[in-house]
Design goal:
There is one protein chain. By secondary structure, the chain is an all-alpha fold. The chain has one domain (16-132). 60% of the residues lie in helices and 0% in strands. It is built from six helices and no strands. The protein has helices at residues 16-29, 38-51, 58-67, 70-80, 84-106, 109-124. Helix 1 crosses helix 2, helix 1 runs parallel beside helix 3 and helix 5 packs antiparallel against helix 6. The radius of gyration is 16 Å and the shape is elongated.
């Protein structure tokens, strides 16, 4: 089970391994298009490394980081932070899959749309009363397919 993400800023500084990985993969991560600078990218990576209990040994940190789906992690965190461009990319990539999955569950077009819309609200971080809360995408750690 995933740990709840820490709120606010990461107090722990990125390790040398995280900084090296961030430097090498920043350009290909897509972070820049969502307004995430290299320091923020390294902070996200640090949070994931710490939450996974993989901090300490540089070799194991680098191996762990290399196993992550970095582009999806960046997209998820940018969406969770409310970046509108990230949400546009997310919806473009995942809308059809989400609606198809919802239809397989609901077996009814109307119910499937309602289910998919409900899931979008959960991911966006809005509850059924329209109140803001932590987006479920903050729990994604890049270890599996988004």
């Amino acid at each position: 089970m995933a740990l709840a993400p820490t709120s606010g800023t990461i107090e722990e500084r990125p390790s040398a391994a995280v900084q090296e990985f961030a430097s090498q993969h920043y350009g290909s991560s897509g972070a820049q298009q969502f307004g995430m600078d290299q320091a923020a990218f390294a902070a996200v990576l640090t949070q994931v490394v710490v939450q996974a209990g993989r901090s300490g040994d540089a070799t194991s940190e680098l191996r762990f980081l290399a196993s992550l789906r970095v582009e999806e992690l960046v997209l998820a965190r940018a969406c969770a932070r409310g970046n509108e461009h990230a949400w546009e990319v997310f919806l473009t990539r995942y809308r059809n899959t989400l609606y198809e999955s919802a239809y397989k569950i609901a077996r009814n077009q109307s119910a499937a749309r309602s289910l998919a819309d409900s899931l979008y609200a959960e991911l966006y971080g809005v509850d059924s009363k329209g109140q803001q809360r932590t987006s479920k995408l903050m729990y994604y750690e890049g270890r599996g397919s988004l």
